[in-house]
Design a protein that fits this description.
Blueprint (H helix, E strand, L loop, with lengths): L1 H23 L5 E4 L2 E4 L2 H29 L9 H9 L1 H29 L2 H28 L3 H7 L4 H33 L14
Antiparallel strand pairs: 1-2
Helix pairs in contact: 1-2, 2-4, 2-5, 2-7, 3-4, 4-5, 5-7
């Protein structure tokens, strides 16, 4: 049974990675609006964290982060902000794009486990989906301000505002839409995978209990 479950985990990891790459290199993954983009790539990361735990979440988060960084050099699309940041400092641009996504996926594994102890699996999956988008925004913007806040480019965007107000205003409706879509889709897919016994401790009776 352990071998069978391990194989199923590898299948899920491969599937989520493939879906993430498909989304990253097609219009399915991003909706570009101004310098930022609404991304749906947080959803496969959340599902991986639910089914595979912190390590699986971190792996798919790393794939997400790598594809995000590659957009800075025009691979799989172009990020207007990424191009500017890469021109300022390529190393910091990589850190800003990569590390937040790995950390997001890693923490989501623990968030799902914690939420599962407090509530039913459906709610736990939705909480994980919400946190996937929320933490992605917080970590991404936090790293942006921390690593590039003193640059002329960022100072021009901030325009003398309070940093918190700047972040809230900058991400705006993008972040809200990401959180809403990630919460709903992750909740539905996560519950289906739970009932199909792709999640540790899954049962077929009262699966949503």
């Amino acid at each position: 049974m352990k071998t069978k479950f391990f194989v199923s985990q590898l299948v899920i990891l491969g599937l989520m990675t493939a879906i993430l790459l498909l989304m990253a290199y097609t219009p399915l993954g991003y909706l570009n609006i101004g310098p930022l983009a609404i991304t749906f790539n947080v959803i496969p990361v959340a599902i991986s964290a639910i089914t595979l735990g912190p390590v699986g979440g971190a792996i798919t988060g790393a794939v997400f982060g790598l594809t995000s960084f590659l957009q800075c050099i025009g691979v799989g699309g172009t990020s207007a902000m990424g191009v500017v940041l890469f021109g300022i400092n390529p190393v910091l641009a990589f850190i800003q794009r990569f590390v937040p996504r790995v950390l997001d996926g890693f923490l989501l594994g623990y968030i799902f486990r914690g939420a599962r102890k407090l509530t039913n699996v459906s709610v736990a999956c939705m909480v994980t989906g919400f946190c996937s988008a929320f933490l992605n925004t917080v970590f991404f913007m936090g790293a942006l301000v921390l690593l590039f806040g003193n640059t002329e480019y960022m100072q021009g965007l901030i325009g003398g505002k309070n940093v918190i107000l700047f972040i809230c205003g900058f991400v705006g409706i993008n972040a809200v839409f990401e959180m809403l879509s990630s919460t709903i889709i992750t909740g539905a897919v996560g519950l289906a995978l739970y009932k199909a016994r792709f999640v540790p401790g899954a049962v077929t009776k009262n699966a949503a209990a």
